[in-house]
Amino acid sequence: MKRDKISRIFHVLYTVHRRNLPITKVKAKPRTNQPKRVQFVTTEVRCQEKTRGGVRYEVILGEPEVKAAPPKKPLSPKSSMSVQDIEDKLKAAEERRQQLESSKIAALSAKMQKIEEASRKKDEQTNQFITATRDALEQKMGIVTEKREAYITDLKTKLKDHIENVEKTRLSLEQQTDEVRSAIEEKLKTASLQRDENIKKMLERLKEHEDQVQKVKSTNNAKLQELETAIQEKLEQARNRKEQINQEQIEKLKKNNSRTLEKQKSVESNIENRKSEVINLIENKLCIAEQIREKEIQKKLELAKKHNEHLNEVKQSLENRKAEQVNKIETKLSAAEQKREQEMQKKIENIKKHEKHAELVRQNKAVMAAKASSG
């Protein structure tokens, strides 16, 4: 404080001394005297002519008039001063300077007193402000600590509730997965049972169809045998008739001419042709019946294969759906667990941050208390 006061006093004295110094004027550059313009007076105008572009004329100027120089001012006589007058003036100037310095020093001392009073008041105000702010900060810190503790307790309760809810959801998801698995297994079992039953039914139908085919074959064979026996009987009858006719014709031929022999040959040829035609028709009918039966058997076998393929596809689709549902449930469970872990980590980090902040606040409070006790 003393050094500041001394420096301020020296600064004020230096400014006062600087003001009392004489001011030296800067010499300006000398001005150059420019020549004055000569005014010419017109005396006569000659040869005035008018043209399209304007007027043409000649002007004769007179001689310039010389002005008289201005009279010079008389010089004032020099004042003669004595040495005593100069000394008296210097003494008066010194006295005035001393009076000015004393008055300035008194004003500076008064200003310094005012400055000291202002600084003292400022220090008192700062001390009062520091005490008030310290009390307010202590109150705020107490409120903050209470709020922080309440917030931490609320967070802990919320975390407990959240963990309980997560466990409940996990248990419910596990129950749902078990139910879904059991339902899928039951559906697969029912589907497998239905498939086995359908296969059994198809096999029974195939057996029945084969039995029917065998019956048809047996009936067809019996009919063929009957037809063969009937044909043989008819052939025998025809032969007998032929023999009878031949005998009759021979007898007639013996009586008649050679024409009867030709007729006999034609009759025999007709009989043989009819016999061959009947045999061909029977064979064609049997071939057609066998082809139709084979086609029906192939169609039924193809239907059975298609049904088996459809059952296999249904089984595979059910297995794929089961696997997809299981994968979805597992992914959901893993995602829920990851989210729960992330939320737990975030909440733990927030709690750690709050604890660090509380520790810093406590340290600051302890430092402030130590400063207050030392002050």
Automatic annotation (TrEMBL):
Region (Disordered): 67-86
Stretches of the chain forming a coiled coil according to its record: 156-270, 301-364
Domain of life: Eukaryota
UniProt GO cellular component terms: cytoplasm; neuron projection
Gene Ontology terms: biological process: microtubule depolymerization; neuron projection development; regulation of microtubule polymerization or depolymerization
Pfam families for the chain: Stathmin (PF00836)
PANTHER family assigned to the protein according to its UniProt record, in alphabetical order: STATHMIN, STATHMIN, ISOFORM D
Name of the protein described by the UniProt record: Uncharacterized protein
Organism: Rhynchophorus ferrugineus
Lineage: Eukaryota, Metazoa, Ecdysozoa, Arthropoda, Hexapoda
